[in-house]
Amino acid sequence: EATALVPGDIVFVSSGDRVPADLRLIEARGLRIDESALTGESVPADKQIEPVPTSAELGDRACMAYSGTLVTFGQAMGVVVATGQATEIGRISGLLRRVEPLATPLLRRMARFGRTLTWAIGLLALLTFAWGTLVVGHGAADMFLAAVGLAVAAIPEGLPAILTITLALGVQAMARERAIVRRLPAVEALGAVTIICSDKTGTLTHNEMTVEQVLESERTIDVSGAGYAPVGGFSEAGRSIDPEDDSGLREIARLALLCNEARLAETEAGWQLTGDPTEGALLTLALKSGLDPTVERAAWPRTDVIPFESEHRFMATLHHDHAGHGLIVLKGAPERVLALATTEYRDGATHPLAPAHWHARMEEAAARGLRLLALARRTASPSQRALVFDDIERGGFTLIAVLGLADPPRESARTAVAECQGAGIVVKMITGDHAVTARAIGEQLGLGRPPRVASSGDLDALDGSALRRLALEADVFARASPEHKLRLVEALQAEGHIVAMTGDGVNDAPALKRADVGVAMGKKGTEAAREAAEIVLADDNFATIAAAVKVGRTIDDNLKKTLLFVMPTNAAQAGVLVLAVLLGLAELPISPVQILWVNMVTAVTLALALAFEPAEADVMRRRPRPPRAALLDRARWWRIAFVALVLVTGTLGAFVWAEAQGYPLETARTLAIAVLVTGELFYLQNCRRLDAPSPPFSRHPPNRAVPIAIAMLVILQLAFTYAPPLQSVFHTLPLPPQLWLIVLVFGVCAFLLIEAEKAVERALSRAQQRRAPAPVSA
To answer: Cis peptide before 101, with omega less than 30 degrees from 0?
Structure first.
């Protein structure tokens, strides 16, 4: 039993087994192990028993098999060297436990904002009480009620509920974009990120090997389509090729199909591979060329096979057609196949092999990050029914083609990376893959032209400050271990950035937990990665992150709009009481219970409507919010003060005027509340755009919640004014029609004044941008 293993035990593993402990291999036959969860490698790693340097990176330890990885081909025996927490996967689990997750930017800013607001309101209430009792001469009991009313007016009681509802709506919106949110504040945090660190395999790429190029002696054929789905075509120098009319391409595809152990099946979840990813790519190539695997295998039945083994670095199959003709197909590492070939196929005929020519072509393809695989053939006698190594080692093969394979980037990932960069978000790739492959994928994705690549050796040699500089400057990090990924995330956070980390493997889990926003893959991701992340992508697609960023930025905008609505309206209610005390008015313009009414109805209706606002047109064209920026900047505080002043002036002015006209105290208070609520109603339209002109002065997607909220508020306010039960509770009286005209005129004037303030603010901002010095080029 795997649970009973101890160091020193001998374990036998074969294709399909999951390695039960960390093993030092002592015997291996054609062994390949999928280590992508630990290393991020796109293809299974070839294993052998020869020792490697102790300084070798995890992905280069060819003589080791690690717990939790999957044997995809061959068989081996190994001695157990570590179990449980001592294994490589256990070490990562320990690292994960030591990582302390950070509070999201929203929670940090709301905590600071809440503390500041609490102290400010408490101090204002205390000063108001002291002024009223010591200077104006009001009774202590009356001033205590006034101070309580001021606190009730100033504290935005409904703000936590509105923020939660806004974030919950963001969760729903992200779910529609196939991003599942596990922790609520991550909704807003994703919209605030300044850097996205992404794993390569399975996130930016399909994690499905694909033949991208077919190298013949005198031509290069490009293959379109990615993954195992047989969708794509062939072209040469931009000219489309029909495989039905190209006998050379057809023969290459046939050989790739015959010397192959993989199987592909179409399921509801897409095309599923059984077997080695490299062989799956070759099988897909044959399907793209129009070949039917069942027909071809029936036409050339396999007689014998030499499986791939790492020491021989090739696979060979023996076939005979129904006329008795024999054929040996050889597939393997290009240098190994070239050593066994004496001729090459060119222009429909066999010619002497030109090794130097082929090496030059292969070096060019390898520099683009392609993994190379050569195909060759040789005729066999009709009587040959067995295949042994001596048959292969005597050579005499004809080289047919060299195939260039890669785990290509998703087309949607290219678009998403460009969209994120247009939004001012820096995208960096951190992968366990080799530097050459990582550079090629990074260049295809547009991560620098060319991208600056740093390897694990570069990271190990750096101290804290040097690492932070490199973390900012490099675009791609190759051969990165879990510790490297964690250090890079911490280095970027130390520079003040809000970092999102994406990944799917166990090796990504510590960095996912440490990042401000961890994003895991839902389909092919490991359980460890999903548990460490705040957001899980249901489709494993980086493009979903870009869509979720847009939702996050929209939520951030709506939170700001909510604050810009709640803060000045609450400040206005408090300001009315403070100013009344300072002026020595005999009666408060609004009683504490009436303030509770205004708070309740405006929060439930108007403030909540802003949570449903659609995205503004430029939401993905703005720079990210500065990481250390306060919840509200100076311009926003000025607007809060200006709006509060407008509402205070109208509310207090209406109350004083009504009393001067001889109206009863209850009527004057009812008028003051009507003016305040109507001013807030019109101010709602001002808040629908943060800086741009508000509807109806600009085009903006409709918000169906706004007319519903307005209708609800009007009904509630009419009931407050005219319904006898509410009149008795809140001490209000009906307003005559002429007073409603005053109320409406004030609402329109307040709306126009605030729009004028926004226009002045826009003009000042443009003037400041024109005066700013031009950036100096490097």
So the answer is: no
Residue 778 has pLDDT above 50, yes or no: no
The pair phi, psi for residue 297, each rounded to 5°, is: -70, -30
Tokens of 603: 């929060």
pLDDT at position 687: 93
The strand pairing partners of 454, in sequence order, are 477
What's residue 213's pLDDT?
A: 95
- The yes-or-no answer on residue 34 being catalytic is no
| Spatial distance between the Cα atoms of 439 and 505, rounded to a whole number of angstroms | 21
- Quick one: pLDDT at residue 199? 84
d(CA 506, CA 531): 10
Mean pLDDT of 558-575: 89
Which tokens sit at 561? 């709009």
Helix, strand, or coil (residue 171): helix
Written as six digits, the tokens of 719 are 């009931």
Cα 744 to the center of its chain, rounded Å:
47
Distance CA 106, CA 629 (A): 11
Write the DSSP symbol of residue 736. P
Q: Which of 219, 161, 293 has the alpha carbon at shortest distance from 611?
A: 161
Identity of residue 14: S
1-to-5, 64, 67, 184 alpha-carbon distances in Å: 7, 21, 14, 42
For tokens 């436990």, the residue is 97
Q: What is the pLDDT of residues 54-78, one digit of tens each?
A: 888 888 899 999 999 999 888 999 9
Of the listed 34, 46, 199, 516, which one is catalytic?
199
